[in-house]
Amino acid sequence: MCYFTDENYVKTLKGSFSREDLDLWARQSLPQALKLQVGCGAEPTVYKHLDRVFELGKQYGVPHISMTTNANLLTREKLQKLVDNGLNEITVSLHGIYQNTYEELMQKGDYQKFHKALQIISDIKQTNPNLLLRINYTFNEDNFTELKDFFKVYGRYGVDIIQIRPISKIGETAYNNFSLEKIIPVYDDFIKMFKKEAALNQTTLMAPAGIDNLIKRENDSSVIFNYTYFYVSPTHFWRKDFDWKNQNFRDYTRQIGWGKQLISNVFKSKKQLQHLLRDQNLNYDVDF
Ligand SMILES: C[S@@+](CC[C@H](N)C(=O)[O-])C[C@H]1O[C@@H](n2cnc3c(N)ncnc32)[C@H](O)[C@@H]1O
């Protein structure tokens, strides 16, 4: 479902951050960060200096340090090291409750390895109570029905947060059924039942509130997205005109009048802010 299944897109990705780049990145970006989310695009566990990323997060006092991963390469030693370095939430991508769906949707993914990794996370949580396990389940017409068995199969790992979100078209992907037609009629009943199960398992549920969100494919909470999400990769550093090697966040935001923009947004109508509610932004509600 991810744009990393698009060969042409992958060809455009080059390079990786050196250790020195990381130090500069941290200095320019982390003093303001409330959350460091590693692995919003590529797979973080293949990166050579991953330990250092978390170490820097901790050094700069970022309150929430999280990693999104397919977990297939996680070992006990690797994870323990990341947690010691500052990781406090691990978000694991899961797109099928049962083996067939899991392996069909996660190219080269291995269901047995995946369960082993979850067991490792669950064990490490016992001695590191601050570590949260979050599951991210992007749903589509082929994996939605089995989601009802989520707690039966995965409840034993002590999942702290389950986030379910509808597939969106984020590129020319190998899986390309973006329709939610079969899900919309059953979604409201499903979410009622799933909310109850999540509460019984002491798991926080993040999900579109109801079918309206699925039909509209937008969410009022997305208004905060452009002001809170800073995507950084070796080929893309937040905004095009931000010269990250020579400028820091504070100088840049002063230059573009960021503060004024935020204040003026407070007085704008919902209609005037409509352009901020883009499709693939937030697909859950945020309570302000
Ligand atoms: C792009 S992956 C990359 C991080 C890491 N390699 C992993 O597998 O978790 C990050 C998240 O994007 C979500 N995702 C992938 N394709 C999506 C799509 N078409 N629509 C919405 N979310 C998607 C996945 O559920 C995954 O948790």
Sheet having the most strands? 6 strands, parallel
Strand order of the largest sheet: 1-2-3-4-5-6
Our estimate of the beta-strand percent is: 5-15%
Count of runs of 4 or more consecutive helical residues: 12
Low-confidence stretches: none
Shape: globular
List keywords for this structure.
288 residues, alpha/beta, TIM Barrel, 6-stranded parallel sheet, 8 strands, globular, binds S-adenosylmethionine
Description:
There is one protein chain. With 288 residues, this protein is an alpha/beta fold. It has a single domain (3-216), classed as Aldolase class I (TIM Barrel, Alpha-Beta Barrel), CATH 3.20.20. It is 38% helix and 12% strand. The protein has twelve helices and eight strands. It has helices at 7-11, 19-29, 50-59, 76-85, 99-105, 111-127, 150-154, 184-200, 211-216, 225-228, 249-256, 258-266; strands at 35-38, 64-69, 89-93, 132-139, 161-166, 204-206, 232-233, 236-237. Strands 1-2-3-4-5-6 form a six-stranded parallel β-sheet. Strands 7-8 form a two-stranded antiparallel sheet. Helix 3 links the parallel strand 1 (35-38) and strand 2 (64-69). The radius of gyration is 20 Å and the shape is globular. The structure holds S-adenosylmethionine (SAM). S-adenosylmethionine binds next to strand 2 and strand 4. S-adenosylmethionine (SAM) binds next to strand 2 and strand 4.
